[in-house]
Design goal:
It is built from 14 helices and 31 strands. It is α+β, with helices and mostly antiparallel strands. The longest helix has 21 residues. The model has no long low-confidence stretch (mean pLDDT 82).
Length: 599
Amino acid sequence: MNIERIRNFCIIAHVDHGKSTLADRLLELTNTVNERDMQEQLLDSMQLERERGVTIKASAVRMLYEARDGVAYTINLIDTPGHVDFTYEVSRALQACEGALLVVDASQGIEAQTLSNVYLALEQDLEIIPVINKIDLPAAQPDEVARDVQDLLGAPAADMPRISAKNGLGVAEVLEKVIAEVPPPATDSSETLRALVFDSHYDAYKGVIAYVRVVDGAVAGREMLKLFATGARFEPVEIGVFDPVMRATDELLAGEVGYIATGLKSVQECRVGDTITLAAKSAGQSLPGYKQIKPMVFAGIYPTHNEAYADLRDALEKLQLNDASLVFQPETSQALNFGFRAGFLGLFHMEIMQERLEREYDLDILATAPSVEYRVLRRDGATVLIDSPARLPDEGAIEEIREPWMEIQIYAPQRYIGAVMDLVIKKRGIYQTTEYLDASRVILHFQIPLSEIIIDFYDKLKSVTQGYASLDYQFKEYRAGDLVKVEVLVNEDPVDALAMICHRDDAYHRGQRLVSRLKALIPRQMFTVPVQAAIGKRVISRANVKALRKDVLAKCYGGDVTRKRKLLEKQKRGKKRMKMIGAVEVPQEAFMALLSLDE
């Protein structure tokens, strides 16, 4: 294959700006998919992706296209995930390309992930082709949006294709522009094999399927290969390309995009960003940019019925086969019995995994309030990582607690600046700078603790800006803070799943609100149930769940007062004994109360 006739590109956009719809039209235009096999969002294979309108897994497809100059080209399209939680996967997919189509909604304009993905593409030195989409909408302002993109990229607004991906208007012009402006791969087939893994999934028969872009050399036959970062060795079961289903081929040459069926039994051995090379004649160095993905958000996942524990473990193991970024380990809670502590890339990633457990594996699960990973410096000099408040050492043994801080960018109309600033500062955010995108839209830069944004920050941001704001965030650093563990005691027994770590200034108010919620949620017993919030040994808030009363004097209709006193004393002793041995059932709604303490 002539390398000059290969084009590798991806489509980047903010969520719901028409990325997957444009991919559909390109597949139709190049006759890659038969008309009878065509469906909306073809590259989004999961039902969940179609419902939410957001790409969760990257996918690739090879298209053959004869351009207007009569030359036949091989065009590889890589569809990237569309959410900020999957930024690392997006960056690896971009590294597999030479160009990127930047799709901007003509009615929405530039939004958070538009800019975030542009910066990722610029870091990889890609040729960026801006495309103004949805010009058929009544609220579309294509010329104004094109001028904004021109200010951002410097590309002439007049040269930007105006398209409607839904109707197929202007899509052929986009493909011609890709051929004209995206450079062919600058690679060498004579070099030792180096192939970038930009995604993977697990197949029951072929093991881990690695999605690769061959950067140098070629892969053919059944020669032993190895992965740089993990050191795993394997003989390829199958080599092929996506068009868009997997089709086996004899070889993959430099510059081509395809897949290698490795036969490996775990995605952990074949991580995104790793480099595949020959086992016998290894390349001198791996391709740049590999890093091991670390989870940022942690939550306990428990089956609502104890007998479903084994099913939950099997389901998590199967999900992990397809998603190496999911980590979990067994955990026991006094209140919720046996379950797992799971780590996720972000809140959206956690939400997706929960839905997949419930839908695909028909499990009834309870997830505790999400928390972040803290670095605790002990007085003996040791540093321990804590991802659950229940694991925090005693207050006397702690020198300091460090929490993760994020840099966030909020894109909003100018009239909402005050509301946004008020929201962020209430969440312990620190204002940095303001950038003006145009006369009416701004970018506000803040630093904020991750623990303050993982629960309801995004919902509140959408609420105070009437849905106009969008958010992007990146990890900044760990910082020491005046943090304390607030424990909840029900009937004087600590409930570990209700413990939380928060700033000392917020501890009293959060403890008080949680105790008030629990008082309403915990069912009444035959004895008084005290509900307390405590920091260490000091109780900061208390409420009593009143006892259910029984009129023991009803049958005592006459006689001496000592008879009544005797009955009351007997009841008092019975209640005391009941309180000592009685178990208080904490309902599931109580654990969800942690998610809405700031309302």
